[in-house]
Specification:
Layout (H helix, E strand, L loop, with lengths): L2 H4 L1 H13 L8 H17 L2
Amino acid sequence: MSLYENEYEQWLVETINLLKQNRFNELDKKHLIEELEELSLVRCIVP
């Protein structure tokens, strides 16, 4: 199991920190993309 699946809050904190530090090669891109896609869908549905 990944950090994303087991410790979502921690995954989120780590992802934010990696982005702030421009450490893009260390990102969990698969789950980050899923989260962004889900967010975009929610924002399209709920004005």
